[in-house]
């Protein structure tokens, strides 16, 4: 991601302490899988900065302060994957930043702009690059990285995924991440392996956070992953999906106080003072 000799050394000890990772530090597939899953289970997905009308900082020092040292906040895809990319590079993994179209529920892929950040991870001695992603806020997200191989089903910590090709107009192949849900393969996002730079995400991040038409600027969207369940707060709806049998329970939060309590107790998030969650 960055070859700058002046970049500060990434604090892997603090990051691993935050995500509870006590495993190996070799840049291999087992470490890559374990660190991604640990990150997902430790740091929640949330859009509270955007809901408050500002784009969150993507500066690595700010991300460490908010997501690692702060411990009572999370972030959305640009924050999560910028932090994850820095950790992987500190481990000796080569990382390429990718930008995807979120096509879940879309009739045409081209109708969705490229707004999601994902990562391509290359391991020393391994000819296969991996799609890695700790920032996709959906039930169809990857729990572990998968090799960039088409038409092969992967089982990642209890979920089923595959990558397929789709027609595209550009010179690069279009890849589609699919998740197996409700008895069918559902497209999650589409991407090419064109490299993007941190400066590109400054623009995308600002647009997604501050555009009044962006869903992230209009209602709270928060998720937390545990070994037993996936928790989602979407507006005033709290949904819990069990990992073992897929049982779904949903309840409506009656007001602001209950929403703040749910964030604190269910998601481990302290909402900023003065922020109105339910509008």
Just give the CATH class of the largest domain.
Alpha Beta
Largest sheet: 8 strands, antiparallel
Order of helices and strands: HHHHHEEEEEEEEHEEEEH
- In the predicted model, the low-confidence regions spanning at least 5 consecutive residues are none
Secondary-structure-based class equals alpha+beta
Number of contiguous helices? 7
The overall pLDDT average reads 96
Shape: globular
How many DSSP-defined strands? Answer: 12
Number of domains: 2
Computed over alpha carbons, the radius of gyration is: 18 Å
Strand order of the largest sheet: 4-3-2-1-8-7-6-5
How much helix, percentage-wise, in residues? 25-40%
CATH fold label of the largest domain: Arylamine N-acetyltransferase fold
CATH architecture of the largest domain: 2-Layer Sandwich
Span of the ends, CA to CA = 38 Å
Percent of sequence in beta strands: 25-35%
Protein name: Arylamine N-acetyltransferase
InterPro entries: Arylamine_N-AcTrfase, Papain-like_cys_pep_sf
GO molecular function, one term: acetyltransferase activity
Keywords: Transferase
Please describe what this structure looks like:
The chain is α+β, with helices and mostly antiparallel strands. The chain is built from 7 helices and 12 strands. The chain folds into 2 domains: 12-198, Arylamine N-acetyltransferase fold, CATH 3.30.2140.20; 219-279, TATA-Binding Protein (2-Layer Sandwich). Helix content is 27%, strand content 26%. An 8-stranded antiparallel beta sheet has the order 4-3-2-1-8-7-6-5. It has a 4-stranded antiparallel beta sheet with strand order 9-10-11-12. The longest helix is centred in the first third of the chain and has 15 residues, at 77-91. The mean pLDDT is 96.
